[in-house]
Amino acid sequence: MHIVIIGAGQVGSFLARNLSHEHDIVMIEKEPETATRLQESLDVLIINGEGDNPEVLKEAHIERADVILAVSGDDKTNILASSYSASIGVPKIVVRIRDVDYLEYPKILEKAEVDVVNPGAIISEKITSLINSPFAWKSETLARGKIKLFKLKVEEHTPIVGRKLSDLGPAKAWIFVAISRDAKITIPTGETRLKEDDYIFALGNTDVLDKLKLLFGVEEEEIKSAVIVGCGRLGMGVARTLSEKGLKVKLIDSDPERAQTAAETLHQVRVFIGDATDTDTLKEANVESIDYFLALTGDDEKNVLSALLAKNLGAKRTTVLYTKPDYIDLIEAIAVDRAISVRLAVANEILSLLHIGGVAHVALVEEGKAEVLEFNIDEDTKIVGKALKDIHFPAGSIVGIALRGDEIIIPRGDYVPKLNDRVIIFSLPEAVKKVESKMGQ
Length: 441
Description:
Elements: E1 2-6, H1 10-19, E2 24-29, H2 32-41, E3 45-48, H3 54-59, E4 67-70, H4 75-87, E5 92-96, E6 114-117, H5 119-132, E7 138-142, E8 147-153, E9 174-181, E10 184-186, E11 199-205, H6 209-216, E12 225-229, H7 233-244, E13 248-253, H8 256-265, E14 270-273, H9 279-284, E15 292-295, H10 300-313, E16 317-322, H11 327-333, E17 338-341, H12 342-352, E18 355-356, E19 359-365, E20 370-376, E21 397-404, E22 407-409, E23 422-427, H13 432-439
Parallel strand pairs: 1-2, 1-4, 2-3, 4-5, 5-6, 12-13, 12-15, 13-14, 15-16, 16-17
Antiparallel strand pairs: 7-8, 8-11, 9-10, 9-11, 18-19, 19-20, 20-23, 21-22, 21-23
Helix pairs in contact: 1-12, 5-7, 5-12
């Protein structure tokens, strides 16, 4: 398929790298240095130019594009490029819009072929989900909201430490599809023994987390208070959401003007002016007594440092926002509890909207160390009518869950895919093409 990506920033380049293995990718980037650098590292065609310029779009052969991903850092560029693409009949368009005010602007956004992705709304939803379920380190929603992928940590006193997965009994509501150990993800077998500090990925229905809590021996305390660092759009949005849910919320920002705006806008939220990497500022906000500390600025270093200080002062849980992919392993190695990747969250939302050839690459895991695929079973799918035990899926992949109407199935060897089933497969990167070939995609 011919895919045009407008904007070679973190999200655009990440999508290009992951989609270029199977599709013809053209990127449009206005910054010459960025275009030159990525041309040397990505196997894609990169055009240096403005993404909203029709002549540049024509150079990218937009008239034969199957998909347009307008994900530059400029909302106006993304909207204009999407408008032009829709006018010439591009069948699938995804547009990233940061400023919610622009969502009211163009009628083009209401067209069926245009999907709008708002990073703030995505991150806010993920943060709210984490606070509602503190046990889960991360969660992704799959299969149009019917299935959840949870990342869970095996703590020191977890009852299942040292036990083989086969000893836990046959999975009925969930299945463990992967383990992250020492920053490496593997597909487990029944003989795999869980170790302290493992991270395990579980697929299950949306209410399975309570059952997993029992398995892990977890008793959660209700979250009643939160301190948020950053009075930007995201910080204020999360503060408003949590305040409306009844939490006692405080905001910290070093910029007096932003802090003043937040104080005037959010009447139920206390706002502090100060540097969150300064212990005195954190003490003034009584961080030592709060349930959740959220560092949501655009500065990775400040987010991590402030979270470490808050944890040291006594904050029960900490979550940081990060943009640099190398930070994930560092964050998990230190005392920070949770981490949300901006680019991964936005990229996963975009991938979930793309059903290319019957397959949706719905989630990239741990900065692309693994991938979740959804397949619709139709007449052309190779595995239809065959028992799972006879299919021999490639090493590095596992069939996690199948959906048949409203029924959720944990597939075993005797599972036989039928027409219109929806199958969710967890795969390591090296197995993705083999899985697609096995499925007939």
